[in-house]
């Protein structure tokens, strides 16, 4: 700017003076910088950025590896599939482990077997109550899973009532008596009503699953052994596998479900890290068997079933 007139020079000088005065006034109003002794902040702030990380500063390669590991875990669909999903309606993402059709087919199968068990008081009290307890324990578990299942599945509206009624009778079937037999007959009629589409009305139930009151670990372990035995029979040779591939897949899905049930809050040893690891491993291996079936890879299916047996035996060595 060419300041030729006296007025222009005066105006610039006045503006500069005002700016300097403003800075001085602002500086006078600003609080002084606080001063602390080192001992006063030693327990509050880290001395350096490196001290804030227990394992040292994270590198780019470590961050990438952690990210890839998380993505692989999410895509596998096994293990603790639903534990970190805050949007889940229940405690596990069951639909990642088992299809609705497998749940429905197993409920129908168990219902037919249960009808044969609850036939006469004499047969029931003579040992049939043990078979009834196993059938009812698995049925209560399946209805609990339906209660938390995100996808479309039959009997969802009646699942909480069915779960509670059946779980109570399963608990009472630890011994045979006329009273228990009569109660078991009521559940027989309830199951017939459900399967025929009649539903269960006028009954109270809790909306959420309380696994400590739904099923005991003992019948779940017995059911697990039956599933593994059927799997082994179904894959003993390729011809057997081809002839019952749907049953093999259903049993593998049910195994992954059992592995997840065993570590639900309220189940025995569910907070034991070693027990969790064994259950998670069996669940993951069952998921891999289902994937191998989808690839039509018989050898991987057979190897996977053998691995499931090994994991089951390892668990039984430590837990009963």
Question: Could you describe the 3D structure shown?
Answer:
The chain is mainly α. Among the domains are: 94-212; 217-318, Four Helix Bundle (Hemerythrin (Met), subunit A), CATH 1.20.120. It has helices at residues 6-29, 38-41, 60-76, 100-117, 121-148, 159-172, 178-195, 217-234, 238-243, 245-261, 273-294, 298-318. It is elongated.
How many individual β-strands?
Answer: 0
**Regions with little confidence, pLDDT below 50 for 5+ residues:** 51-56, 59-65, 68-90
Principal-axis shape: elongated
**Would you tell me the structural class of the helices and strands?**
mainly alpha
Distance between the termini: 94 Å
Integer average pLDDT: 81
SSE series: HHHHHHHHHHHH
Strands, helices and their partners?
Layout: H1 6-29, H2 38-41, H3 60-76, H4 100-117, H5 121-148, H6 159-172, H7 178-195, H8 217-234, H9 238-243, H10 245-261, H11 273-294, H12 298-318
A few lines on this structure:
The protein is mostly helical and 320 residues long.
Structure keywords:
320 residues; Four Helix Bundle (Hemerythrin (Met), subunit A); 12 helices; 65% helix; elongated
């Amino acid at each position: 700017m060419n300041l030729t007139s006296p007025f222009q020079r005066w105006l610039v000088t006045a503006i500069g003076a005002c700016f300097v005065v403003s800075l001085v006034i602002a500086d006078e109003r600003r609080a002084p910088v606080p001063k602390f002794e080192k001992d006063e902040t030693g327990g509050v702030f880290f001395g350096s950025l490196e001290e804030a990380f227990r394992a040292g500063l994270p590198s780019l390669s470590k961050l990438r590896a952690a990210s890839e590991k998380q993505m692989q875990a999410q895509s596998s669909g096994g293990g603790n599939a639903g534990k970190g999903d805050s949007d889940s309606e229940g405690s596990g993402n069951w639909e990642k482990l088992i299809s609705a059709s497998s749940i429905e087919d197993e409920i129908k199968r168990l219902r037919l077997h249960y009808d044969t068990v609850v036939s006469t008081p004499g047969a029931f009290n003579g040992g049939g109550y043990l078979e009834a307890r196993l059938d009812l324990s698995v049925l209560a578990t399946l209805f609990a899973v339906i209660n938390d299942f995100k996808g479309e599945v039959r009997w969802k509206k009646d699942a909480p009532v069915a779960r509670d009624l059946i779980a109570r009778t399963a608990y009472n079937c630890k011994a045979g008596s006329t009273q228990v037999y009569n109660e078991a007959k009521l559940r027989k009629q309830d199951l017939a009503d459900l399967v025929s589409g009649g539903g269960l009305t006028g009954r109270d139930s809790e909306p959420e699953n309380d696994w400590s009151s739904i099923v005991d670990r003992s019948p779940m372990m017995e059911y697990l052994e039956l599933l593994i035995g059927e799997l082994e029979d179904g894959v003993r040779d390729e011809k057997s596998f081809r002839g019952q591939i749907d049953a093999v897949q259903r049993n593998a899905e049910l195994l992954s479900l059992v592995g997840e049930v065993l570590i639900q809050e309220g189940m025995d040893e569910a907070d034991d890290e070693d027990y969790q690891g064994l259950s998670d491993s069996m669940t993951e291996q069952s998921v891999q068997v289902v994937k191998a079936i989808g690839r039509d890879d018989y050898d991987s299916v057979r190897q996977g079933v053998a691995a499931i047996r090994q994991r089951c035996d390892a668990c039984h060595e430590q837990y009963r």
